[in-house]
Amino acid sequence: MALRLLLHLTFLGLGTTQPLAQQQGxxxxxxxxxxxxxxxxxxNLNSPQExxxxxxxxxxxxxxLVVDVQVFVSxxxxxxxxxxxxxxxLLLRLSWLNTRLALNSTGHxxxxxxxxxxxxxMPRLTVREAxxxxxxxxxxxxxxxxxxxxEFYLALTTxxxxxxxLFHFPRDQSDCHLTFFAFSNTVTELEFQVHAVNEIxxxxxxxxVQDLKTQIPxxxxxxxxxxxxxxxxxxxKAILTLLVPGEALLLADLCGGLLPLHxxxxxxxxxxxxxxxxxxxxxxxxxxxxxxxxxxxxYYFTVLLLLLFVSTTETVLLTGLLxxxxxxxxxxxxxxxxxxxxxxxKPGPNPEEAPGAGKGSRRSWxxxxxxxxxxxxxxxxxxxxxxxxxLWMWATCKSxxxxxxxxxxxxxxxx
Length: 415
Known about the structure:
single chain; alpha+beta; 7-stranded mixed β-sheet; 4-stranded antiparallel β-sheet; 6 helices; disordered N terminus
């Protein structure tokens, strides 16, 4: 009887150690009638000195114990590019061989045995990138076959750091890593063989998982394995909230250049500039920042701000010069015309015609300069758009290596 056997092992003084990882329970397949004669060596149960220490890692001779790990990724949610974090839900299936738990071939019991985690050796896993981990099952059990094969399930939800590559935001693609370490063992004692399975069925998200892979990181002092999630931004939200308003303001500025030089045009340009300043301030807060590769949109929207500023400045300068020239012409009538009219004694021309001629020449000069600037401005705006598209398509930015990458295992940084 399984309960009698477990109580017997407890009274023999087998210590229990709380593992760091708790797993999703695997349901038992009915009640088991397991006799003590079915255990590998029933005589050892009566001798405390010869009782197998099931809490210690199974001995595999001169080779490390091989633990097969299958990683099932069922959900990726709450991708926060401002905090550089991503939350995910995973299920780990761990299996290994412990010959100490192999039953005698003479036993009549063929069903697998469900044993609590506190009487067996279990890999203690720690996620290096995790901010927090929630191991979902608080009373896990391991499934033990007659030949000593053990299956152990771990279900967890975790929030981890992720180094997003945001240079091409909002069409960015980043690799997020989850590295699992077994700090209680060494590489000579334990070895992982890992496989990944993508079980994500929902794609109605801002970020979708494009690829999932696993690997064993080289040059580590403790056993570990790494799960890599490749996340792709769908970009629809960012395009509607960022690119469309920016392009609309730029198009409105180009249309404003068709208005005649007047105070209404200045009011129109200043209103656009102030509107874009408010948009730009909120935009910078919404975009993520990076120590090496900032999003290309940061530079793009800064260029748009400079273009709007130059256009508004040109309008203010030409309108101000034109108004100042008209004011001087009105305040100082031509003395030559007044003397000629006095000598001849004839009524001169309409006094408003002479200043009007000067106004016409100044207005034609200002309109010609404004027309030339508008043509140059349209060409500059078009060139800026083509340059941005070219950078978006072909430019790349390689992030600076992390400080720890140059000094593995706490060594001195390389110069």
